[in-house]
Design a protein that fits this description.
12 helices, alpha+beta, 5-stranded antiparallel β-sheet, 4-stranded antiparallel β-sheet, Uridine Diphospho-n-acetylenolpyruvylglucosamine Reductase, domain 3, 3 domains, Enolase-like, domain 1
Length: 285
């Protein structure tokens, strides 16, 4: 590993000022679980890292306000996993955590890092996308809000400007929506998935009133499948509907092959797991 400068600003303003938007070798670092691996294997060579660990606390913690769940970007994943507030507001999130990497990583990795990294294999982005989440972003030019589905723009790419940081994740009240996430791993249970499917739906008497469907890992970014969502308006949650949804998903999703499986294999997985995730969300597991 080559030497680099590490600075530890005490305030968010200082941290943003320390990030040079014209120098790609200057990067912010929070948990560092992904960035340090990239450095070790030579994918990224930093000149300076701006640590966010000693900020004044405004980007950490979990709370609710006006029915919205707000999670600070520097909150460790393990805090989210064990939060009673998260479990009440969005129970699908703590449910997925035990298979989200391992406990050592979850103790260090942060919510903001899981989103800002833009890795399509991450479990958290597709889940919060299905929940209709947005992020609050801060930078030299001020603050802005962005839906998570608009934050992720490509393979390891996001809509963040070079001198912007994610400050917090905001998940709206779910009402009668119920959600589920399923993934298929080619190796260990907590390994990166070959496919991830997140769904959130509202149903009444076996009829689907609305649904949000997201695919990840088999695609270059976590992606909403809007044509699949359109098939559910007033449809009954039965085998016929689920087969149609699986076929629509296989047609819409831009599937890519990698070491975890060919595109054809992942497409077939998607056909099957769309239905399984929908049944799980509806309580039919």
């Amino acid at each position: 590993m080559i030497p680099f400068e590490l600075i530890e600003p005490a305030t968010l303003k200082e941290a943003i000022a320390a990030i040079d938007p014209d120098d790609p070798a200057v990067r912010p670092i929070a948990g560092g679980t992904a960035l340090m691996l990239m450095i070790k294997v030579g994918v990224f060579t930093p000149r300076k890292l701006v640590s966010l660990r000693k900020l004044d606390g405004r980007m950490s913690g979990i709370k609710t306000a006006a029915g919205e769940l707000i999670i600070g970007a520097l909150t460790p994943l393990s805090d989210v996993e064990h939060s009673a507030e998260v479990a009440r507001h969005a129970p699908v999130i703590p449910q997925i955590m035990k298979r989200l990497s391992n406990v050592r990583v979850r103790n260090v990795a942060t919510v903001g890092g899981a989103l800002a990294h833009g890795d399509p294999h991450m479990d958290l982005p597709p889940v919060v996308m299905a929940l209709g989440a947005k992020v609050r972003i801060v930078g030299i030019g001020g603050e802005r809000e962005l839906a998570v589905e608009d934050l992720l723009t490509g393979y390891y790419e996001t809509a963040l400007k070079p001198n912007e940081l994610i400050a917090s994740l905001h998940i709206p009240a779910q009402g009668k929506m119920r959600a589920a996430y399923m993934k298929v791993t080619a190796g260990a249970a907590d390994d990166w998935p070959a496919l991830g499917v997140a769904v959130a739906l509202e149903s009444d008497g076996g009829m689907i009133k609305s649904a949000r469907v997201v695919v990840s890992a088999a695609t270059s970014k976590a992606t909403r499948l809007k044509s699949v969502e359109k098939t559910f308006g007033g449809a009954r949650l039965d085998d016929k509907t689920l087969r149609a949804a699986g076929e629509a998903a296989a047609q819409e999703a831009d599937i890519i092959g990698d070491v975890r499986g060919s595109a054809a294999y992942k497409r077939e997985l998607l056909r099957v797991y769309i239905g399984r995730a929908l049944r799980a969300a509806a309580g039919g597991r």
